[in-house]
From TrEMBL:
Function: Transcriptional factor involved in regulation of membrane lipid biosynthesis by repressing genes involved in fatty acid and phospholipid metabolism.
Domain of life: Bacteria
Domain HTH deoR-type: 13-46
Name of protein: Transcription factor FapR
Gene3D superfamilies the UniProt entry points to: Hotdog Thioesterase, Winged helix-like DNA-binding domain superfamily/Winged helix DNA-binding domain
Keywords of this entry: DNA-binding, Fatty acid biosynthesis, Fatty acid metabolism, Lipid biosynthesis, Lipid metabolism, Repressor, Transcription, Transcription regulation
HAMAP family, alphabetized: Transcrip_fact_FapR (MF_01814)
UniProt family annotation: Belongs to the FapR family.
Length: 202
């Protein structure tokens, strides 16, 4: 039997637990145990009593409720789990770094996986059957390590004839680890709708 130091009364802890998950749907049970200083069994029981599903199920529900149908590529070709997708506007995906994504000695993620998550999300945002990356200006801010969760947030900054500009920021927790500016070619030549339309700087 695991002895647990209950830092908060159960009802108060459960209220704060629900709030923590609402503010950060990507938070894991392990992270919640550290936050509330209780065992993982206590966290799981709290979630059950509150009717809050585990992380994987929460992600699945979010995806089913809130993303448009991807047109430019099959959903399984998007690197990471798509959490939110509003075509020609914005999108979010989550990618967990596993053993197959890292260098064996350092346990640091290979850069092309971080890039692929951002790039595929940028392409998936475009509401067109044909969308391809024409150019990318990228910056790796810090190394990403084994078991870290990368949250990529993509925003369509402009859409013009045959070209879209998409900006992607990837975070681990609150820390930005990658930034990319993508120019996406798309087939339609007369598009003017959608996106946060800004005047092109070039």
């Amino acid at each position: 039997m695991v002895l647990v130091i209950e830092r908060l009364p159960k009802r108060q802890r459960q209220q704060q637990l629900a709030k923590a998950i609402e503010e950060n749907p990507f938070i894991t049970d392990e992270e919640l145990t550290k936050l509330f200083q209780v065992s993982i069994q206590t966290i799981r029981l709290d979630r059950l009593e509150l009717g809050i599903p585990e992380l994987r199920e929460r992600m699945k529900l979010m995806a089913e409720q809130s993303y448009d149908q991807v047109r430019s590529l099959p959903l399984h070709e998007v690197i990471g789990d798509v959490i939110d997708l509003q075509l020609d506007k914005s999108g979010i995906s989550m990618f967990e770094i596993r053993e197959e994504h890292v260098f064996s000695r350092t346990k640091i993620a290979r850069g092309h996986h971080i890039f692929s998550q951002a790039n595929s999300l940028a392409v998936a945002l475009i509401n067109d059957k044909v969308a391809l990356t024409a150019a990318a200006d990228i910056r790796f801010v810090r190394p990403v390590r084994l078991q870290e969760k990368c949250i990529a947030k993509a925003y369509v900054r402009s859409i013009s004839k045959g070209k879209a500009k998409v900006e992607v920021f990837t975070y681990v927790g609150d820390e930005m680890v990658f930034q990319g500016n993508f120019i996406i070619y798309h087939a339609s030549k007369d598009r003017h709708e959608g996106g946060e339309l800004h005047a092109d700087s070039d």
